[in-house]
Design brief:
Elements: H1 11-23, H2 27-44, H3 55-67, H4 73-81, H5 87-96, H6 99-113, E1 118-119, E2 123-124, H7 126-137, H8 142-151, E3 154-155, H9 163-166, H10 172-184, H11 203-210, E4 216-219, H12 224-230, H13 237-248, E5 250-253, H14 299-307, H15 315-328, H16 348-360, H17 365-373, E6 400-401, H18 404-416, H19 428-432, H20 451-460, H21 474-477, H22 504-507, H23 525-533, H24 535-542, H25 545-551, H26 556-568, H27 574-585, H28 590-598, H29 601-604, E7 605-606
Antiparallel strand pairs: 1-2, 3-5, 4-5, 6-7
Helix pairs in contact: 1-16, 2-16, 2-17, 3-5, 5-17, 6-7, 8-14, 12-13, 15-16, 15-17, 18-24, 23-24, 24-28, 25-26, 26-28
Length: 607
């Protein structure tokens, strides 16, 4: 179904896959194999690996890449006091198992999956956030996590995983296109309307894939209309809209639905309006036979089984390529959304190896990262972006700016300390308590017959002493309370998704979550102004944990050394100390030194 017959495979590919299977049993050997593939490619192009990164460079880099923030002075000191030869590997293991890693991975996934607090006409999606975070906390294998999202069913208030499909409920064809692009790197968007001009996908291929979802209804109900029918002197329309959303937004099987070719279908192999039989796309081989005789309600599960299978040549490659980019700054095959021609990768052998490695670790994202983080390649000094048109061949990781989330989380660390990794928010219970414990009519026009039991249920949710008087339910139906001042100094993963456009996170490049992978690390005037004059920077300069800790030191030299280690993970050079002391003597204070360090390139870049 996925691969050409074995006689068409080269001996090299067979040997390489066998080698990957053997090496994956030993992470150290797998790390060494990655290094060997890269060294061979560098030598082929007359290049050499970068020198090893110093301990200071490594510690700061691995903290940012694994848990999404800089290390504290105490954490840096603990690593430097460890004299064991495998201390780097031990630190990697520790960070991958930490709550900070879950937070950082949530930010990464939220950008990829376009996670928002509110979806248009759906309402709050807090159950989705909680579900995703739980999967990360439990280190669920990637194939299982994705399978659950594709096969999810039921009400949003009960099953957070349904939010993935509900995200594009009114645009099922776009939803399929996003799914194939995100999880398979299959560039099929053009095939919605016509045969792809530059790839092998046809419009028929696209509709045959869409037919796996043909009998699924992604109900994004405009609950304003049923709320108008239900409202009376006891509850307002606005409160009833909020009550109905977790119950009426759902993914269900609908036997009356099917997929047909569009009215403007212009090819000879089918007629507009013909029913489409589901068939999987293939890569580099003959097309498989249509899936006939399958129960319609199970087609979505067949699709999920196919897409997440270890035999699918794109599923493992897509997530491996994405994680490689997360850790090394650039993917083996760019862009990550187009893997149609694997041989166009910078290093095709490396891409094949890490794809096989992902299968061999059973899609364990932590284990895959552990292997990459333990490579010499990752632990070498960084390189700057090569000239346009020149491939980056990984003599070390790419020098890159922090993401908006890494910058924010590092600043919040300086404000509050490492306790931020432990502070978690969970608004899902606010949604879950709104779920009706009874069946009701989902028809927006016929829902009036269930008015009394819905209203009676709503009354049970009112806070004690509150009377339902048409505006009742303020305490129940209001959204999460707004965060202000110190209460807003939380990790990015625990704040609203995404933050408002004027918030530091958005100004610094956090995605609006309308387009996948839309976060930006580009610098700019607005980001610079936020770093120099923003409210969070002002708080950091005056009433932060880092300032108080520095003030507790006995001498200016000790204070300066503490600030440098805390902000830049290194001790100041002699010249740095002299300049800072001169600045303090001229009337500046420790907050001004923190300001200068935070606005330096050394702070903003991952070296």
């Amino acid at each position: 179904m996925f691969l050409q017959p074995i006689r068409h495979c080269s001996l090299l590919l067979i040997l390489m896959v066998a080698t990957a299977n053997a090496l994956a049993n030993d992470p150290a050997d797998s790390s060494s194999r990655i290094d060997a593939i890269i060294r061979l490619d560098l030598k082929k192009h007359g290049l050499k690996p970068n020198p090893p990164a110093s301990d200071v460079q490594f510690v700061r880099r691995v903290y940012l890449d694994v848990i999404g923030r800089i290390p504290t002075n105490k954490e840096l000191g603990r690593f430097q006091a460890d004299i064991r030869k495998d201390r780097r590997a031990r630190l990697i293991d520790e960070l991958l198992k930490s709550p900070g890693h879950d937070s950082h991975m949530f930010n990464w996934l939220a950008d990829m999956l376009r996670v928002k607090d509110d979806y248009y006409r759906i309402g709050k999606t807090w159950t989705y956030h909680t579900w995703l975070k739980k999967q990360l906390q439990e280190n669920r294998p990637w194939d299982e996590l994705v399978h659950d999202m594709i096969t999810a069913k039921g009400r949003l208030g009960e099953n957070g995983a349904t939010a993935y499909l509900l995200r594009d409920a009114s645009m099922p064809l776009d939803s399929l296109s996003n799914t194939l692009t995100t999880f398979l790197g299959a560039n099929v968007a053009c095939a919605q309307c016509h045969d792809h001009p530059f790839a092998e996908w046809t419009q028929r291929d696209f509709y045959e894939m869409a037919s796996f979802f043909g009998s699924t209804a992604f109900e994004r109900v405009d609950t304003r209309k049923p709320a108008i029918k239900l409202r009376d002197e006891r509850f307002s329309k606005a409160n009833l809209v909020t009550l109905l959303q977790p119950n009426m937004e759902r993914v269900v099987f609908d036997s009356t639905r099917t997929t047909v070719f569009p009215e403007d279908y212009a090819y000879d192999d089918a007629k507009p309006g013909d029913r489409v039989a589901p068939r999987f796309i293939t890569w580099g081989g003959e097309k498989g036979a249509p899936l006939t005789g399958k129960r319609p309600q199970r087609l979505r599960k067949h699709f999920a089984n196919w897409m997440t299978s270890a035999e699918n040549p794109r599923f493992a490659a897509a997530i491996a390529n994405r994680l490689w980019k997360k850790l090394c700054g650039v993917a083996v095959k760019e862009p990550v959304t187009d893997l149609d021609i694997l041989e166009d990768a910078t290093n095709p052998e490396l891409l094949r190896f890490i794809a096989q490695l992902m299968k061999d670790v059973d899609f364990d994202l932590q284990e895959f990262q552990r292997i990459v983080l333990n490579t010499k390649t990752y632990q070498q000094q960084v390189s700057v972006t090569p000239p346009e048109g020149e491939a980056f061949r990984f003599p070390g990781p790419l020098l890159r700016r922090m993401t908006a989330e890494q910058t924010w989380d590092s600043i919040v660390l300086l404000l509050r300390g490492p306790e931020i990794d432990q502070i978690k928010t969970d608004h899902a219970p606010r949604m879950q308590r709104l779920v009706f414990p009874f069946e009701f009519t989902h028809d927006r026009n016929g829902i009036e017959k269930d008015r009394e039991k819905i209203i009676e249920f709503a009354k049970t949710l009112l806070p004690d002493g509150e009377v339902s008087n048409g505006k009742g339910g303020r305490g129940l139906f209001m959204g999460a309370s707004k965060l202000r001042g110190e209460d807003s100094w939380l990790r990015a993963s625990e704040l609203p998704q995404p933050m408002p456009p004027t918030h530091f996170l958005r100004v610094a490049g956090q995605s609006a979550r309308e387009v996948a992978d839309d976060g930006s690390t580009e610098g700019g005037i607005t980001k610079s102004l936020a770093m120099m004059n923003g409210e969070v920077t002002k708080s950091l300069m005056t009433n932060s944990l880092v300032i108080k800790a520095a003030q507790s030191k006995n001498t200016q030299v000790e204070q300066i050394a503490f600030l440098y280690r805390t902000c830049l993970s290194r001790l100041p050079r002699k010249q740095d100390t002299s300049q800072c002391i001169a600045a303090l003597d001229q009337g500046l204070d420790l907050g001004d030194i923190v300001w200068a360090l935070l606005n330096s390139r050394e702070f903003m870049f991952i070296q």
